[in-house]
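Hey team,

Filing this mostly as a record. A colleague (T.K.) asked me to run one chain through the structure pipeline before their review meeting, and I want the input and output archived in the tracker in case anyone asks later how it was produced. No errors, nothing strange. Just documentation.

Input sequence:
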Amino acid sequence: MIFLKEPDLSKPVDCPYIDGEKFTQEYFYAYDLDEEEFDEFLSAGWRRFGLFFFRPSCVNCHSCVPIRVSTRRFYPTKSQRRVLKKNSETTVRLSHLEYRDEIFEIYKKHSKVKFGQESDISHFKDSFFRPAVPSAQSEYFIDGKLAGIGFLDISSKALSSVYFIYDPEFSDFSLGKFSIMKEIEIGRELGINYYNLGYWIEENNRMSYKGKFSPHQTYHWEKKVWLEGNCYKSDESKDVSDKENIKTQ
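Output structure:
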């Protein structure tokens, strides 16, 4: 692991997820992490884009909760099975990171339609094709046409979703939900324990879908352990980290 900038704390800014709150994060820049090194950070709630690693560090707020699904215990709900059925002929391919113009074209359309944002190719490449950790991409094909791409980080114990984009032309296929289930499946086939979904804010409509993939575990920032369910809402939550690790050794 090579640090380009030691960990630091950002200045507070308006929270992009909760009105009226301030957002602060720890961050650093680094590259050349191996799977074991990256797992230490991922297991402690860190995320990354390109060489930029970050995690929330907000005073008196723990709404952004890291969430992960056990690849061995996940079972789709009735509505999720309908998504799987809808994509019964969707082809999925896992490969090394490889930039192609057609991927950027999908990113541009996805950003414009979903968020109303214009796209910059340099920022796109720096965020997703400048890996600091072991990484891969999943590609989704419908009728032979590239319809979606998932960017994934790989640690010794987890497959972590960095970002997923899809061509709005294929919105009816619910590719975002489908990609989560397929990538959980990929993690299981690779012998990886967990699938990380990043940060979950249950009350935020854009993030609420993450809690529907079960059974899931969340990271308790103060206790520094992973617990079953939403660790900030359930008095019955218990530490499952050791149990999961023993089970999969």
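Quick notes for T.K.: The domain at 78-189 is CATH 3.40.630.30 (Aminopeptidase). Residues 217 and 247 are 16 Å apart (CA to CA).
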